[in-house]
Each structure stands twice: as structure tokens, then as C-alpha cells.
Amino acid sequence: MAVQAIEPHPLRLRRGSRSSRVVAHTWIARQWALWSRMLTPLRPLDAPRGRATVWDASWPLRREPISVRQARRLVTGQLAHWGLGHLADTAELLVSETVTNALRHTRGPLRLNLRLCGSRLLCEVEDTETDGPVRGVVDLDAEGGRGTELLDLLTDAWGSVRTATGKTIWFELRAGEAGRPGPAG
User: Fold this and answer.
1) How far apart are CA 129 and CA 16, in angstroms?
2) The pTM is what?
3) Distance between CA atoms of residues 127 and 79, nearest Å
4) Sign of the alpha-carbon dihedral angle for 27, 28, 32, 35
5) 1, 19, 50, 83: most buried, per Cβ within 10 A?
């Protein structure tokens, strides 16, 4: 019967050895990577997101029904500015749905973000509620409750992510090639 050497588990290394210092350093590096997003300063939702670029736009929205119309105008204007007018109808409908849901089902401030990443348009609606969207069974003659179905049908991807301030509902649309930004406005 052959006897095999069993190496100690990395966390059971002798205290003070070089190997234990390396393991401790990598553990700290992993923990830092996991928590780094939580340590960055938070921008309140009633202010634009801090890292606006030519291909990144952000707007705070008031908790008023008129904010849905404002969000639609902001999105269509920004898409025209980016040369992506062909996405305006779909994006306008989906932004209207996500902002309306945020106004109906959450409290606190809201923020609308648009970002063009290569050939993808990312839209986010941030709010202060941690619970994600709930998919329900809807009657054929119901007036509402089809938001998740619209997201399923019209987007390439969508989801909900918890954040330090609440959650973000996001969706992506295939943008194709972006045009050059037009005049500021």
C-alpha cells in the first residue's frame, strides 16, 4: 500500500510563514475587490450619476406623474443626439413602463441613466426600494401588469440588481453602430 503525502490546507499553514502571508494577502485582495463598490462615494438619486461622458447620460426624476413624460422626452432627445433615432420608439415605451412602475411601487427619489456601450444601449432606472419586479398572471382584459412581458419581448436582456441605495431595473437594446453626437442639448 502506497502512502501519499497530504499537503496542508492553505489556511492551515504555519503562522508567520511566507505561504501564510501570501494566502492572507490574496484573501485581503479578494475581499477588497468584493467590497470596493460599497466603499465608493454614493451619489444621491436626486442628482445625476457622477461619471457622465459623451456616451453616458443621467437625470434625476421627481416623484411626480409628469416625470414619465419627462423621461420619455429625455430618452428620445438623447437617442437623437447619439444618432440612434431608430431605437426611440422601443426605448420610449420601455422607459415609460419602468419609470411608471418605479413611481407606483417605490418611495424616494429616482434616477434615469442611459449608456451606449459599443453596440448596446443600456437603460437603467434606479430607486430606493430593494424588492425587484414581480411577475404576475394577468387577465386578458386587465389594464396593467404587462411590464415584464414587454421587457421580455422587446429587449435583448433585462434584469434587476440590488444596489447600496436600493435597486436598479435595467434593460439592453442592440443599438448597431452609433452616430456621432450632435450639438449639445
Assistant:
1) 46
2) 0.66
3) 23
4) positive
5) 83
pLDDT at 87 over 70: yes
CA 181 to chain centre: 23
Whole-angstrom distance, CA of residue 92 vs CA of residue 150:
12
Q: Give the Cα separation of 117 and 56 in Å (integer).
A: 9
What is the mean predicted confidence (pLDDT) over 18-45? 60
Grid cell, residue 5, equals 503525502
Stated as kind and residue range, the H or E segment containing 54 is: none
Question: Does the pLDDT of residue 184 top 60, yes or no?
Answer: no
* Angstrom distance (rounded) from CA 23 to CA 33: 15
3-state helix, strand, coil in the chain (%, to 5): 40, 20, 40
